[in-house]
Design brief:
Layout lengths: L2 H8 E5 L2 H14 L6 E8 L1 H7 L13 H11 L14 H12 L3 E5 L7 E8 L3 E7 L5 E6 L2 E5 L7 H10 L3 H8 L4 H22 L4 H4 L6 H18 L4 E5 L3 H18 L3 H22 L7 H17 L4 H15 L11 H20 L15 H15 L1 H19 L2
Parallel strand pairs: 2-3
Antiparallel strand pairs: 1-8, 2-4, 4-5, 5-6, 6-7
Helix pairs in contact: 2-4, 3-17, 4-5, 6-12, 7-12, 8-10, 8-11, 10-11, 10-15, 11-12, 11-13, 11-15, 12-13, 12-16, 13-14, 13-15, 14-15, 14-16
Length: 421
């Protein structure tokens, strides 16, 4: 594997949060070509899609939020061709129709707790026709479309997509091998990494303008506070639905922001070259992907704090001249610190979690560079960083099942209260 192949899959531009975009893609596919006014939108999703769409902002929608708006907007767009960029097709007419569906409680959602992997199913009724669509496995994998009872598209759901296999491969590699991959970036790879940094810094700077002056003033106290606040601002702007593209990492724009901005800014503070920053960011991306494999794409624990935070700590160590042993210590420091920070969906509150992750990553890397790491005798910390990641994965996928279930119940209760006429 080379870094170019990795970046092609895991370092990609995105507009808005991926999960609501996937819902809109599904509902647009179900409504495409149907005649008549939309009378009903019935959505069924897996628990993690529900959680991640519950309160997140939607771009170009005047800051509408949540899963019902995503479904109603997609159904009103009636065109799945833009894929995950379908929110770029929002018009005043689309918002009027979607708003009517929401106001009159004609858009609803059901959670299928039996679905463990990504799953979105939609049934739409108009005054004249019906349509259905299913996405399964990954965000753009449209496997079934039915119009008026006639199947117009059907393909098998793949057990494992290319991205899943890629993450598995990276997670099985020792840290030394990941460092070797990051050191072999080409000029084109470096350019792509820099493009991502530029996108993420742009939304972060914009995000600062959305914060009160009292809060922003904290950024002038020291470089670390400014870096963590930039990340916080970028994530806030994205989750609020500001119309800025970002460079996503491992399927998450928030992960991309969290991993890239501190490395780029800290490299300048240290007087490091662009090439040094690019190698550090490449390693951060690789370890974010490896950790995402252990956690799952949508997890019970915060992926930005755990996956991107761990990747960031590794990148910071490499940027300051550390090697595999120090990176292993940094991972142990992160696993012994931020494990257990829950994911209660994508929303503006993620901004504060990512700010915490950046602070934790700098502490973890600083201690590791001094040869200090949480010892293997402590809690879930493993003998090596790689073993710690495996233990973290066990906590996230098996240990926190009941936590995820309880989060889902709370969200459903809140949505039912909001939807009651």
């Amino acid at each position: 594997m080379n870094i170019s192949d990795f970046l092609k899959e895991e370092w990609v531009p995105a507009l808005g949060c991926t999960e609501p975009a996937s819902i809109a893609l599904c509902t647009a596919a179900a409504s495409e070509g149907l005649e008549g006014n939309i009378e009903k939108v019935a959505l069924t999703v897996d628990p993690k899609i529900y959680k991640n769409c519950y309160a997140v902002g939607i771009p170009a929608s005047s800051h509408k939020t949540g899963i019902l708006w995503a479904a109603a907007i997609g159904a009103s767009i009636r065109d799945p061709s833009p894929g995950l960029e379908c929110f770029g097709r929002i018009t005043p007419a689309v918002m009027d129709e979607a708003g009517t569906l929401i106001k009159e409680h004609r858009a609803g959602v059901t959670v299928d707790t039996a679905k463990k992997d990504l799953y979105i199913s939609c049934k739409i009724e108009t005054s004249k026709e019906t349509g259905e669509a299913i996405i399964s496995g990954y965000h753009t994998n449209l496997i079934r479309v039915v119009k008026n009872g006639k199947v117009v598209l059907e393909r098998p759901a793949k057990e494992k997509g290319a991205i899943t296999l890629l993450r598995e491969k990276i997670a099985a590699m020792p840290i030394e091998e990941l460092i070797g991959i990051s050191e072999k970036i080409t000029q084109a790879d470096g350019k792509k990494l820099q493009e991502g940094i530029a996108l993420n810094l742009k939304i972060a700077e914009h995000g600062l303008s959305l914060f009160p002056e009292r809060f922003v003033k904290l950024a002038s106290t020291d470089a670390l506070t400014r870096m963590s606040m930039l990340v916080c601002a970028g994530v806030y702007a994205r989750m609020w639905g500001e119309d800025f593209p970002v460079m996503s990492l491992s399927g998450s724009g928030n992960k991309g922001i969290t991993a890239s901005i501190p490395i780029a800014v800290h490299a300048k503070v240290l007087g490091k070259s662009s090439a040094d920053a690019q190698r550090a960011l490449a390693l951060a991306c690789l370890l974010t992907s490896a950790t995402t494999h252990h956690l799952g794409s949508l997890s019970a624990v915060c992926g930005c704090s755990n996956a991107a935070g761990i990747g960031l700590s590794a990148g910071l160590v490499l940027l300051e001249g550390g090697g595999a042993s120090e990176i292993s210590l940094a991972i142990n420091n992160m696993v012994g610190n931020v494990t257990g920070m829950i994911c209660d969906g994508a929303k503006i509150g993620c901004a504060l979690k990512t700010m915490t992750a950046v602070d934790a990553a700098f502490r973890a890397s600083s201690l590791a560079l001094s040869g200090i790491g949480i010892p293997k005798t402590d809690g879930i910390v493993g003998e090596t960083g790689i073993l710690s990641l495996e233990n973290l994965g066990r906590i996230a996928t098996s240990g926190m099942i009941s936590t995820d279930s309880e989060i889902l119940k709370i969200m459903q209760e809140k949505l039912r209260r909001q939807s009651t006429p």
